[in-house]
């Protein structure tokens, strides 16, 4: 994993890529937290040898696919299967930019299709990794494993605590199941359902955004009215203060007073409620300065 920076696969979320959290990539899909990737690769380490043939179902960003391809080496082969074209294209783009040798050497190959039934025509595999959760144990994929092959998948109810399980196949009728850790991963669902969820979430976001804009617009209009009202009231007070006991026959003293009052107004004209401060400062000015 040290060779593969999560940021390279999440260029749209540079800050989140460094956090140990799931990150949304698009179409209601997420990239799991880094610790999940680490636990998965650690559970597969014994089988990730040079020359290994691997299948990554629900390859998403392509991060796990790339890690497996690196460990399988030049004589290995990894198939990443992703049913959302946009997500698959982005994963290929990221790997093409940062690790082009995996694609150029034919170690890593991506296919755009539903991978929930596996990839029987390319099997059997040493490793099958399921990038999303399934409700029931995926026994239907065991026939696509080589003897002593390994399958790993999050198993459990959607969006509830699941068990990351490792299935080791001994022969066609015998296998071992290990519970690696608890996790919560996005379910592997049909493409149409995933796209529907995405469209619904986009529509909900747009509704929320429009509502927020309307609220801010109302507040802005109200604030502008209050500001104008406050400005008008303040100017009235200034006009009253500026002529208090100022002899017309002493223009120099009148100018000093007007300038000082203008300075107070300039200081407080943008305050939300400037009248109290204006009154106080004007009185202080009047009491402390000798305009005679």
UniProtKB/TrEMBL annotation:
Alphabetical UniProt keywords: Coiled coil, Cytoplasm, Methyltransferase, S-adenosyl-L-methionine, Transferase
UniProt xrefs under Pfam families: PCMT
The protein's name in its UniProt record: protein-L-isoaspartate(D-aspartate) O-methyltransferase
Enzyme Commission no: 2.1.1.77
Record's keyword annotation contains Cytoplasm: yes
Taxonomic source organism: Cacopsylla melanoneura
GO biological process: methylation
Main location, first listed in the record: cytoplasm
Family: Belongs to the methyltransferase superfamily. L-isoaspartyl/D-aspartyl protein methyltransferase family.
Subcellular location: Cytoplasm
Gene3D superfamilies in the record: Vaccinia Virus protein VP39
Gene Ontology terms for molecular function: protein-L-isoaspartate (D-aspartate) O-methyltransferase activity
UniProt lineage: Eukaryota, Metazoa, Ecdysozoa, Arthropoda, Hexapoda
First-level EC class: transferase
Domain of life of the organism encoding this protein: Eukaryota
Coiled coil, from the record: 213-240
One GO cellular component term: cytoplasm
